[in-house]
Amino acid sequence: MLDLKGMQFGKLTVIAKTDKRYKRGIVWLCECKCGNKEYYVPSDFLLNHGVTHCNLCKWKDNGGNTKVFIKNTNIGIIKSNKIFSHNTSGVRGVYLHKKTNKWIAYINFKRKRYNLGSHKNKEDAVKARKEAEKKFYGNFLKWYNIEFKNKND
């Protein structure tokens, strides 16, 4: 197996081998020149598919229109206030469960879905969602804004 540690692929520098695997290949921890210090890339993507920069660079180069995952978190989604077209409550992460006639609240963070409970009224579900946003997104966005200050603008 080829050791990629220290090798340069465009803006990416391979930092270390991880225990993660992608299609039986090694996933490497890389650092990008844009400041993204935690970007994971499979060997095959570095060697055969021409990956030379992180998603943050791709996002910046494409005017912020592509998904950017930092620490398994989609930055664009959590920073956005956009309501998806299939949403009927007008609040992200809140919907009416038709069979039980209760309002369900949930939040997604780091590629996991957290159930915030079922509620008799919409206001309680919205309150649960807003509290969860502060809990999950608040400190993460503070860290992100400090770590990537002026690098994604």
Biggest sheet features:
4 strands, antiparallel
Total number of distinct structural domains: 2
Radius of gyration (CA) equals 19 Å
CATH architecture of the largest domain, please? 2-Layer Sandwich
Form type: elongated
Task: Tell me how many strands there are.
Answer: 9
Oligomer: single chain
Q: Averaging pLDDT over every residue, what do you get? A: 83
How far apart lie the N and C ends? 39 Å
Structural class by secondary-structure content: alpha+beta
Within the largest sheet, what's the order of strands?
A: 1-2-3-4
Q: List the secondary-structure elements in sequence, H or E.
A: EEEEHHEEHEEEH
* Name of the level-1 CATH class of the largest domain: Alpha Beta
Percentage of residues in strands = 25-35%
Domain AP2/ERF: 90-147
Protein name: AP2/ERF domain-containing protein
Keywords: DNA-binding, Transcription, Transcription regulation
Organism: Clostridium weizhouense
What keyword list fits this structure?
3-stranded antiparallel sheet; transcription; elongated; GCC-box Binding Domain; single chain; 153 residues; AP2/ERF domain-containing protein; 4 helices; 2 domains
Question: Nutshell version of this structure?
Answer:
By secondary structure, the protein is an alpha+beta fold.
